[in-house]
Amino acid sequence: MLNVHLNRRHLLASLGVTAAFGGFIPRLARAAGARDPRLVVIVLRGAMDGLDAVPPVGDPDFAALRGGFPQDGLIKLDSTFSLHPSLVNFSRQFQAGQGLVIHAVASPYRDRSHFDGQDVLESGMTSPGHTESGWLNRALSALPNGQTAQSGSLARGLGVGGSTPLIMRGPAPALGWAPSSLKAADADLPPRLMALYDESDPQLAQTLKEAIDTGKIIGGNNVAGAYGGPGDPKTMAAMAQGAAKLLAQPDGPRLAGLAFEGWDTHAAEPQRLARQLQGLDDSLAAFESTLGPVWNDTAVLVVTEFGRTAAVNGTNGTDHGTATVALLTGGALKGGRVISDWPGLKPAQLYQNRDLAPTTDLRSVAKGLLAGLYDMPDSAMSQSVFPDSAGAKPMRDLIA
User: Fold this and answer.
1) Alpha-carbon distance 89 to 295, whole Å?
2) How far is 185 from 176, CA to CA, in rounded Å?
3) Distance from CA of residue 397 to its chain's centroid?
4) Distance (Å, rounded) from C-alpha 318 to C-alpha 397?
5) Which of 57, 179, 365, 374 has its CA 20 to 30 A from that of 4?
6) What pLDDT shows up at residue 263?
7) Rounded CA separation 199/202 (Å)
8) How far apart are CA 303 and CA 241, in angstroms?
9) Contact (CB, 8 A) for 71 and 90
10) Residues ≥6 apart with Cβ < 8 Å to 144
């Protein structure tokens, strides 16, 4: 039995599929207005340094805190903020009015545990340990009438990764996929197994059929030469490209969650963050190029569990902090802006005298996207998507 299980897993992996499916991908009957939107959330696990990704070089106290970090090649956004030089594609999207930066943002979490911070960020709860479902999965169930599937089932989501990210786990049906580095299965193996399972295991046969169909859509998307997992820049781009191929299908998922690893930069941050941001930037470009015309109806939200300390530590890195930056891109956005109630970097302005102080609730950003893209009512977002969040009002004017 063990060998059979492994063979099934290996076959699904060779097709690029890592999770079972709950049904056919539905077509949305109607989206908000004339738009048929997609929402993608990319979780950066490890706490990305927002002060390095989008440095506030116009703040008079910034240089004293970050003088040890190289500042060559920064891309100016406005009189206060610049972009890290690795974010070339995001800069282009920003200049085209499709990129947005929201700075000094944080989830409700105020401690410094990665595990708990990611739990709060992805579950949408106010504290860790309350749920096994994620807010993006619950958003699938809260889509207004008329935006559900024609079949009567709920619109499906997509979770990308070796295991489905918490943000997309839950009762609403969701497709799971991850790029594979395994050799592709021989062409005659899937039909032979289909014939076998049709006779002996109809449920597995249905799962296998959907895996084959998904593999055909994503065909050729692998990560040969990338050995760093979801923290490897090549893998990030492959994950984005595969997700975009599925999202671009007329009957494809409408909400997707991805998780990129490797953003904990306690030492040698300039080198490490440049590499990670390059992978993120390539993935944002992959979404834009692969989605085609669907890009015009898409919003991509990039978030992380918390920020880093304002000051550099003794190993040229930064430690766990509080507020950070959220990046948004997509043709559906009203971009070309940095949105921030900037708290300042003087010692008395820092949170607990060490971190960038949070002034914007990340749930307000997510609510603004759900309201602008899907006409989701405040009551549903405050009660089921982000429970006990009535005080976090949706950020308006994010969607064009």
Assistant:
1) 15
2) 19
3) 21
4) 33
5) 179
6) 97
7) 7
8) 19
9) no
10) 374, 375, 376, 377, 380
The yes-or-no verdict on residue 212 having pLDDT over 50 is yes
- Token code pair at residue 314: 């003794």
- Would you put residue 359 in left (φ > 0), alpha (ψ -120 to 50) or beta? alpha
∠ CA 291-368-163, nearest 5°, is 55
Closest CA to 79 of 327, 319, 338: 338
How many residues are present in the chain? 400
Q: Which two tokens stand for residue 118?
A: 């990611």
Give backbone dihedrals phi and psi of 149, rounded to 5 degrees, phi first.
-70, 150
pLDDT over 70 at 134, yes or no: yes
Calpha distance 289→331 (Å, rounded)? 12
CB distance 395 to 368 below 8 Å: yes
Q: Which among 211, 287, 207, 209 has a CA at the least distance from the CA of 248?
A: 287
Are 47 and 272 in contact, with CB atoms under 8 Å apart? Answer: no
Going by pLDDT thresholds of 50, 70 and 90, the confidence category of residue 226 is: low
Query: Which whole-number Å values give the CA distances from 392 to 73, 83, 334, 370, in the listed order?
Result: 36, 28, 21, 14
> Residue 62 — pLDDT band, cuts 50, 70, 90?
very high
Q: What tokens appear for 316 in the block?
A: 């040229």
In the beta sheet, which residues pair with residue 44? 260, 304
Kindly write down the DSSP assignment for every residue of 332-356, as one continuous string. Answer: TB--SEEE------SGGGSBTTTBP
pLDDT of 231 reads 84
Cβ–Cβ < 8 Å for 368, 396: yes
Query: pTM of this prediction?
Result: 0.85
